[in-house]
Write a structure and sequence with these properties.
single chain; alpha/beta; Rossmann fold; Pantoate--beta-alanine Ligase, Chain: A,domain 2; six-stranded parallel β-sheet; three-stranded antiparallel β-sheet; 10 helices
């Protein structure tokens, strides 16, 4: 049985055991479900897995897709029940943001938030980290699972948890892909047939770049390979970057991260993969 908690008061009254948390904005897909499974692995059969579903208005900028972001409550709840989630926390915006929706105190995400996604979406990560911190404080999980698909977000959350001494272990979940390689995302439903095919260029580009990285190619050659794959499908990258695992601007020898973002048919898509540098 999956309990539904629709207010902070209900959450605070909910019995507490070792908790694993998966934070989502709903429109759940197999990528989210893999995070739920990972949370269950962390807490074991006797622990609790909680899923939060909240479309966070603070992380959307002017002209972005907040109003049309997919909301699939019935399917989401059914998926959580099928996966053995103990409770779903689905608060109203007024409960999380306050009655007037104006939070005067927010989280400064630091200089890393001005790069990559932060450069394209000013204020995005301030909104993300503010709500992540608030939900962590409310639910107080021992483990919080976040997907590597939104890699910059994951790095910033880990940094916030470390710098602010939040008592939680952040557990990363690997990117989950469709059979053809497209990274799963709630926004994929926006893609029509032709753009869905074009979107595969992001994954092809990452594979091409990773192959060159394995051969010891220079950084510029690796990022150029990604951009060529995108260009073959008339896609212009918002950014392609080869970084260290914590998004260091100059990766050192070892594990690196290859990031790409682009708009395809008006749909903003992100992808990334680990590489050897």
């Amino acid at each position: 049985m999956t309990d539904v908690l629709t207010s902070i008061d209900e959450l605070c009254a909910y019995p507490t055991r070792t908790r694993g948390l998966v934070m989502t904005m709903g429109a759940l897909h197999e990528g989210h479900l893999s995070l739920i499974d990972l949370a269950r692995q962390q807490v074991g059969a006797d622990g609790q897995v909680l899923v939060s579903i909240f479309v966070n208005p603070l992380q959307f900028g002017a002209g972005e897709d907040f109003s049309r972001y997919p909301r699939t409550w019935d399917a989401d709840l059914a998926a959580c029940r099928d996966r053995g989630v103990d409770a779903v926390f689905a608060p109203a915006a007024s409960d999380i943001l306050g009655g007037d929706g104006d939070m005067a105190v927010t989280v400064d995400p630091g200089p890393l938030a001005a790069l990559y996604e932060g450069a394209a979406r000013p204020g995005h990560f301030r909104g993300v980290l503010t709500i992540v911190l608030k939900v962590l404080n409310l639910i107080r999980p021992q483990y919080a699972v976040f997907g590597e698909k939104d890699y910059q977000q994951l790095v910033l959350i880990r940094r916030m948890v470390r710098d602010l001494d939040v008592p939680v272990t952040v557990v990363p979940g690997p990117v989950v892909r469709e059979p053809d390689g497209l990274a799963m995302s709630s926004r994929n439903v926006y893609l029509d047939g032709a753009d869905r095919s074009r979107a595969l260029a992001l994954h092809r580009g990452l594979l091409a770049g990773a192959a060159l990285a394995d051969q010891g190619a220079p950084q510029a050659a690796i990022t150029d390979a990604v951009e060529r794959e995108l260009g073959d499908d008339d896609i212009v990258a918002d950014y392609v970057a080869l970084t260290g695992p914590d998004l260091e601007l100059v990766p050192t020898a070892g594990d690196g991260r290859l990031l790409v973002a682009a708009s395809v048919g008006g749909v903003r898509l992100l992808d990334n993969c680990g590489v050897r540098t």
